[in-house]
Design brief:
Two copies of one chain form a homodimer.
Chain A lengths: L34 H9 L1 E3 L16 E3 L6 E6 L6 H14 L4 E5 H8 L14 H24 L4 E5 L5 H14 L2 E8 L3 H12 L10 H16 L15 E5 L4 E5 L4 H10 L9 E5 L4 H4 L11 H17 L5 E4 L3 H8 L5 E4 L15 H7 L1 H9 L12 H17 L3 E5 L1 H12 L15 E8 L2 E8 L21 H5 L7
Parallel strand pairs in A: 3-5, 3-6, 4-5, 6-7, 9-12, 10-11, 10-12
Antiparallel strand pairs in A: 1-2, 7-8, 9-13, 13-14
Helix pairs in contact in A: 3-4, 6-7, 10-11, 12-13, 14-15
């Protein structure tokens, strides 16, 4: 990461708040920008510690590599078809990207669909189908090549290699590929024998697959079951003895139990923790903001105001809405700011207050209008428009900081079932970006209007969103990015997108 | 549940600044604070394993961690109950499977311990009890599980399985030779007796089985953390316990804690802010660099906060370091950059409330020590994963970290002494932590304010300021 220099000024004499600092997340990106550190970073040569060879023929353990302090990680999915590998791949990728670890998934089935335009039948997957085997191997290698490009040339940190990888031989090939390129390899295996689960998976994600676009549901199911059979004979599950030197997690029966072996580093530890907390039980997550507040009306940001008259009306409407939804065992969470708690109070049910759900801290700009910010801090205002995700208010926070502090909320949301989260604009944008897989550039501009509930329901590989406006008017608090973000811009250009207020 | 026809009014708690509903002037229930993981029914953690497998090490460490994050936890070591009952330990023969007298006493101890567990969880507001004994037979575990069910506890088993003779030998040296049981024996005698003690258990040992025990909630730790088998994690607290247990290790290492060098605001007796180092602070940074060099620490990681003064300090070391925003000093909100005299003048009520309960007190628009602990939890977790680390941080932050390592309760935490220009070297040993305090011989102001005698909100200013340390 290159430090920003101003006329040979020592880094520390600059305004620290302008450093794009990742704090905790610095663990993934090596260390923060200091001159000495950057030099060390690019020139460091690391000798791999003497370690056991997982497979014969792996490179010598004392090979010298040029790499960042934290090597890229290659996650390798393992399992029969319809065991949730792609579900896990996509979810894990989404989570890692959200917490700031550049991650990409590589679905070998997708490479196959791109190469073999039309899927005919399960016979493609028969173990003695020479042509099929050749094509499938070609796809795997093409995917691995893209993995290499992503991790070694495009600054990716984690690649998720999504394929069955059911034989030890195939896994050995991938492991060697990882070693040659200086990646740490971590296997994620999903083992499931429950026929109901497998049938449900097929309905959820296979029937709608491009492979079966011209088939009836019955035809598709029948073909897919035969496809699974093609893999069963050669399936070599990760073995406690034979694979004892590999790093892996084996997920059994959709998370009833886990076998975890040789977790090597921080990112693997986080991945394991995440995988052990997710579940597939159907449920919905409701996100909304507090009711309109007194400061909202005045166009002021932050503070700890109470609800306006309309805000209190919204709280009552929310109570009615929640009642009508008839949600089983709903948990209600709020921040520790008065306006969310007032909103929850109207529901008449128990709720939990989370300090980490508090609105973004605008530091010196707390309780100001945008006009006042432009007047008093025109430079800050412009910098914020230039990079709203990373911009940190003086003595305040950035969206990037928010994501960090919201991570435990996401983890607990994954563990829970039906939850209503009553929070704030910036906080809701962060949570929404996680569920809808929105990248950092879009996150701070997601629309989260007052008095509108978003109902999120996991479906297939993603999330269905329903937006329910509860019919109580409120001010608009959404400020779009203006065209002119130059620090030398005139005030009118800065304020052109400020929404109306008292 | 039907919505209330009228939402209750909210009042802000003056100490913690949290909004609470009240009915007719009295605080009402209904809202819970998530400062920590809330446990609904109490949890009974049951250790399982042969002697010298690290059960007590894990029990104590886990108890320390849970208490630090705010979950009231207590461990119950059945061996200790036995030592209290049978004054003098004679030999391994006490543990022979056919020693009727021995079996009677041991069962009595287990029941006494369980009774204390029940009292702690059901009468004393404990949230988690750790039942530390071998519990190596399925029958014994069933008894305990039923006990848990009868009392409405969730039971979670933690088994430690290890066959590596080197590890077992090392454990015996670390914690058994010094045990009260062997106070009159030579090391060789003690080791020999203890090995025979382990043998007494082996024949009847029934490890947690994937099939037979498939309905239990447990984690099986194998070979000191090389691998884990986790089954049926039921709730948040079990998930956190599993995550913690999977991150700890026993590799010898040291953790170095220190504050930034003296800052310009320190000199003036002002709190918070983002000042740079004073002249003496810069000197300290150089001394720290020299000290670190002389220590010759293998693969030392250096962490700082994102405040200028810690970064300046780290810069002098000339090695890579990582900045953590969560290591930033406690946010004093409206009191940032004030002297204590100014706080007393402008916010006398706040100043008094803080002295009344320094751990829970939250500055207006700021934080409390309790908040700090929450935000430092990922640091502790990563410190557990790492080996040699130097953390350059701040007074309140260092107090929180130190309280974790030295198992200091919330009441003492905000008053732990963490003076400037002093490095604390923490080295895990046996069941605890050895502390070495190294003053690096560069003078600095004292920033430690003791709790004054008079904490009444009506106290005169002199009473409030009597313990303020000297400054410019």
């Amino acid at each position: 990461m290159k430090p920003s220099h101003k006329n040979n000024q020592s880094l520390l004499e600059q305004d620290i708040t302008n450093l794009s600092s990742l704090g905790f997340l610095g663990l993934y990106h090596g260390f923060q920008a200091t001159d000495a550190a950057v030099e060390k970073q690019t020139c460091c040569r690391i000798t791999l510690p003497r370690k056991r060879r997982a497979y014969q023929g792996t490179p010598p353990a004392d090979q010298v590599l040029l790499c960042m302090t934290n090597c890229p990680t290659l996650i390798v999915m393992v399992g029969l078809p319809a065991r949730g590998k792609t579900y896990i791949s996509k979810k894990l990728t989404r989570y890692l990207n959200w917490i700031g670890v550049p991650t990409k998934e590589f679905n070998v089935g997708q490479y196959r669909r791109d190469l073999v335009k039309k899927y005919k039948s399960f016979e493609f997957f028969l173990p003695d189908n020479e042509e099929g085997l050749k094509i499938r191997k070609r796809c795997a290698l093409a995917a691995l090549n893209d993995v290499r490009q992503y991790l070694s040339e495009e600054n990716g940190h984690v690649a998720v290699f999504d394929a069955t990888n059911t034989t030890r031989e195939r896994r050995e090939t991938i492991y060697k590929f990882g070693e040659e390129n200086g990646y740490k390899t971590f296997f994620v295996e999903s083992v499931c024998v429950d026929p109901e689960v497998i049938a449900a998976n097929i309905v959820q994600v296979k029937l709608g697959s491009p492979d079966y676009v011209d088939c009836s549901n019955d035809e598709a199911t029948e073909d897919f079951m035969k496809r699974i059979e093609c893999y069963k004979n050669s399936y070599e599950t990760l073995d406690e003895t034979l694979d004892k030197d590999l790093s892996y997690i084996k997920i059994m029966d959709v998370g009833r139990s886990y076998l975890v072996n040789r977790v090597m580093d921080h990112i693997q530890s986080r991945i394991v923790y995440y995988l052990m907390n997710i579940h597939v039980t159907p449920r919905s997550i409701y996100l909304c903001r507090h009711g309109e507040s007194e400061l909202n009306l005045k166009g002021r940001i932050g503070g700890d105001p109470g609800l306006s008259v309309r805000g209190k009306e919204f709280a009552k409407s929310l109570a009615q809405f929640i009642n009508e939804q008839n949600i089983k065992d709903l948990k209600v969470w709020t921040s520790q700011m008065k306006r969310t708690i007032q909103t929850a109070e109207a529901l008449g049910v128990p709720y939990e207050q989370w300090k980490v759900l508090n609105e973004i801290d605008a530091g010196v700009c707390e309780e100001m209008t945008y006009e006042e910010i432009q007047e008093n801090y025109p430079l800050e205002f412009a910098l914020r428009d230039q990079d709203k995700y990373r911009y940190r208010y003086p003595k305040g926070e950035s969206y990037e900081d928010l994501v960090q502090r919201l991570e435990p909320v996401i983890m607990e949301l994954e563990r829970q079932e039906n939850v209503l989260v009553i929070c704030h604009q910036a906080v809701m944008r962060c949570l929404l970006a996680y569920f809808l897989d929105k990248p950092a550039e879009q996150l701070p501009y997601l629309k989260c209007p007052l008095h509108t509930v978003l109902k999120l329901t996991p479906v297939a590989y993603g999330c269905k969103v329903e937006s329910i406006f509860l019919n109580v008017e409120a001010v608009n608090t959404h400020r779009d990015k203006p065209e002119n973000v130059d620090i030398s811009r005139p005030p009118e250009d800065a304020l052109v997108t400020v929404p109306a207020h008292q």
